[in-house]
Amino acid sequence: MGFIVGLVIGLAVGITIIIGFVKAENYRSKLRSELANTVAAFARMTVEDSRKLLPAEFYPSWVVFSERQNCLAFYLLQLTWLNHHLTKIWPYVDEAASELIKASVEPVLEQYRPAIVASLTFSKLTLGTVAPQFTGVSIVDGDKNGMTMELDMNWDGNPNIVLGIKTLVGVSLPVQVKNIGFTGVFRLIFRPLVDEFPCFGAVSVSLREKKKLDFTLKVVGGDISAIPGLSEAIEETIRDAVEDSITWPVRKVIPIMPGDYSDLELKPVGMLEVKLVQAKNLTNKDLVGKSDPFAKMFIRPLREKTKRSKTINNDLNPIWNEHFEFVVEDASTQHLVVRIYDDEGVQASELIGCAQVRLCELEPGKVKDVWLKLVKDLEIQRDNKNRGEVHLELLYVPFGSGNGIVNPFASSSMTSLERVLKNDTTDEENTTSRRRKDVIVRGVLSVTVISAEEIPIQDLMGKADPYVVLSMKKSGAKSKTRVVNDSLNPVWNQTFDFVVEDGLHDMLVLEVWDHDTFGKDYIGRCILTLTRVIMEEEYKDWFPLDESKTGKLQLHLKWMAQSIYRDS
C-alpha cells in the first residue's frame, strides 16, 4: 500500500515538474520572440518616431538631432550619386579648374610673396586623378531671397603642383607641393531666386570652414632646408592665399543669368573698436626672469590685418591700454581672436595662450567689458591648465542704419562721450584745409573710495591696516586714503579729484596696501579704464582685487567732461 501511494506521489511530482518546465520554456520563448520584435521595431524607427515617443527635454545633453540626421537616407543617396558622377567627370573638371585656379590664385600669391622671394608663380598645376569626396550636405534656413547649401568635403589627392620661385639672389627653385590633405565645409549660396530656369541668378562659392589643410614642400632635385626660413615663408604664403581668396566671408560670385550681382560681393558692414587693457596671471615661459608678453589680434588671420601690441618686458600681469580697429565683414559668423605670446627676441615667439570673442555676442553701439580665459588651442575644448586671462573692451559699430540697427554715434540722444566724438565733426569736414583732428576727451574724474570687504589677513593678530593709493597711469597723478587700523572690512568714504587730459587713453590704478610700523605690504590692485565712466557719466560698483585671493573695493566714479581737439 505504501509503495503504491509513494509511486502515485512520485508520478504526480514528476508530471508537475515536467509541466512546469514546459511552461517555463514556452514563457522564455515568448519573451525572446517579443524582445526580437521590439528590437526589430526599434531598428525601423526614424528620428521622428523617437521624438514622438520621448520629448526633447527628456534627452541627455549629449544627444543632438540635426537636420542631416532627419534626412540621412536621402542625403546619403544624393551624396553617392554626386560622388559617382564627380569621379566620372573629374578629368574634365581638372582641366578647367586648373586654369581657373592658376589665373585667380597667382595674383594672391604675388600679393603675399615673402620678402626673401623675388617672384612666385605656378610652373605646373594639375589636380591629379583622385576626385574629392563629399561626406555631408545640409540646407541653411533663414534666407528668404535665396537658398544656402553646405557641403562637407574630404580630399586626399595626388595633384601635381610646382611653384616657380626665384630668390632675390637670382636662384630659381622649383618647389613641389605634395601630400595634400584637405577637409572642410564649402558653402554655396543660390541667390537671387527668379521665376526662370534654373530658378536662381548667381551662385556664390566660399570655404565656410577649413577643418584641415596639410601639405609638404619639396624642392625638385634639392633640399628646401638649404635656404633657412624659405619653407616656413612659402607655407605661410600659401595659407594666407587660401584665407584671402576663398575662405568665408570671402566668396566667388558666379553669374548664371545676366544681371547686376554687385550686392552679393563681400562688403564691410561695420567697425570693431578694441581696447586691449591688460592681462593677469600669465604662464611664465622663461627659465630666468619672467615672460615678455605681447598680443596679436585679428578677425581674419591675414598678415596685413593682424594687429600687434607693444611688448611688456618681464611682467606676468602686463598693462597695455592700447586701442585697435578692425573691419567687420560678417558680424553673424566672424569672431575676434587674441593670442598672447612671449617675446623671445631674434628667436620665434612662444605662445602663452589664446582666446576668442564671437561678434554676434556684441550688442551694436554698446561697450562690452570682458575677461577672457586663455587656452592652448581654440579647437580643444578641454583645457584645465591656468594660462591667465586677458581684459578687453569691445565696441561694434555697424555702418549706417539700413539694417534696423541705430548707430549711437549718429543718434540725437547721445552720451557725453558720443557728443564729444560727434560734436563739430561736420563743420571740420567742410573746411578747405580738410585737416584731421583727434578727439581728446578732457575732464575731471571724481573717485570716491567707499569701502572694502574681505581683505586678506596681514597681521599676526588676524587683522590688517589697509589704505588705498590712487594714481592715473598716463599723467602719474597720485593720492591715497587714510589708514584704517585693525580692519578687514574698512570704510573710507574719501573723495579724490583728478584732472584728466586724455580720458580715452588714460587709466585709473588703485593699489591696496597694509600699513606697518617699519614698512608696508602689498595686498592687491584694481585697474580701470575710463570708458565706462565717460559714457555713463556716473556709476557705483564693486571691483575685485587682482593679485589677491580675496578682497574687493567699492567705488563711486563721476565724470565732468570738457572736450578739446588737436591737429594731426
TrEMBL record:
Bilayer topology reads: Single-pass membrane protein
Could you tell me which residue ranges the C2 domain spans? 251-372, 425-543
Q: Using the UniProt record, give the first listed, main subcellular location.
A: membrane
Give the record's keywords alphabetically.
Calcium, Lipid transport, Lipid-binding, Membrane, Metal-binding, Repeat, Transmembrane, Transmembrane helix, Transport
**InterPro entries attached here?**
C2_dom (IPR000008), C2_domain_sf (IPR035892), SMP_LBD (IPR031468), Synaptotagmin_plant (IPR045050), Synaptotagmin_SMP (IPR039010)
Q: What is this protein called?
A: Synaptotagmin-5
Which source organism?
Answer: Thlaspi arvense
Q: Name one GO biological process term.
A: lipid transport
Example of a GO cellular component annotation carried by this entry: membrane
Tell me its family.
Belongs to the synaptotagmin family.
Q: Where in the cell is it found?
A: Membrane
Residue ranges constituting the SMP-LTD domain according to the UniProt record: 75-257
